[in-house]
Design a protein that fits this description.
about 160 residues; Helix Hairpins; Chitinase A, domain 3; five-stranded mixed sheet; 3 helices; alpha+beta
């Protein structure tokens, strides 16, 4: 799973690297040839895109570096950890919720994803099926019971949400 994510991010890095080194320089060169750069919207757009691509490349390289440092064999096979899908039941309301444990450096999270450094992520980390999780929030204390757990080792490739 982590290898598939690294491959996907690597492909995006290659695509952006090509845009940064080939496509954008030719667009900038073409805009410069039009003259008067103060009012040249193509030139400004190309420079803005260049800045965005550089920032995105930096972010992707940092994520790849973090992913490379993960040793999947060190992630528990029977407790909540990175990549786990956890189903909990609120002991007061009886409602079930599903959480996917992810890194915390993403720009956008999908519904149900929680970072391991968030309050709920910290509360769930290392817990097993049947254990009670006490989640201390500013306005209340929630008691959750873990009813189902699939670790990164048990999930099929299509069940795994991208770890941002």
């Amino acid at each position: 799973m982590i290898e598939a994510l690294k491959e996907k991010l690597g492909e995006e890095v290659e695509k952006l690297q090509f845009e940064l080194n080939v496509t954008l320089p030719s667009e900038i060169r073409r805009a410069v040839e039009m003259g008067d750069l103060k009012e040249n919207s193509e030139y400004k757009a190309a420079l803005e895109r260049q800045q965005f691509v550089r920032a995105r490349l930096s972010q992707l390289r940092e994520r790849l570096s973090k992913l490379s440092s993960i040793d999947v064999t060190q992630i528990a096979t029977d407790a909540v950890g990175l990549g786990s899908k956890v189903v909990t039941k609120d002991e007061k309301t009886g409602l079930s919720e599903t959480y996917d444990m992810v890194f915390g450096d993403a720009l956008e999270f999908q519904e149900g994803q929680v970072t391991m450094s968030s309050p709920i992520g910290r509360a769930l980390l290392g817990k097993k099926v049947g254990e009670e999780v006490i989640l201390k929030l500013p306005s209340m204390i929630r008691r959750l019971r873990i009813t189902d757990l699939k670790t990164i080792h048990q999930l099929k490739e299509d069940e795994i949400q991208e770890i941002p």
